Amino acid sequence: MSLLTTLNDDIKTAMKSKDKDTLSVLRMLKAAIQNEQIKTNRDLDGEEELSVLSREMKQRRDSLSEFEKAGRDDLADKVKIEITIVEKYMPKQLSDEEIRQIVQRVIDQTGATSSKEFGKVMAAVMPQLKGKADGNQVNTIVKELLQERE
């Protein structure tokens, strides 16, 4: 079953239960996927749907950090609820240790020896972790492991 079908079913459920917060987030996710379909002029596969979800999650996490910096707890609370809803449709997130193992394996495969090769490592590791780990978290771990090699 495609993500779009799941979202449609969940939208119906949210409408019946009058859950306005969930309903608005699900509609935003559905719209984002449909917009991407219009752009590509075809149905999206699972990987492309995951990319759209990842982008939506990143936007919400960025908004959350900005709202917290600005002391806007009212808006931060709303975004936290949205993040919780979007997380239900994302694959299970990897732990720090699992990310470290994957990054270490990629560093060994690419032969990277310094932080100058950061871009090469990130380019190789991100497709493997797409949707399964936050990019900022991966970024930090890659920098840390490359600095240990210097």
From TrEMBL:
GO terms for molecular function: carbon-nitrogen ligase activity, with glutamine as amido-N-donor. This is Glutamyl-tRNA(Gln) amidotransferase subunit E. It comes from Enterococcus caccae ATCC BAA-1240. The lineage of its organism: Bacteria, Bacillati, Bacillota, Bacilli, Lactobacillales.
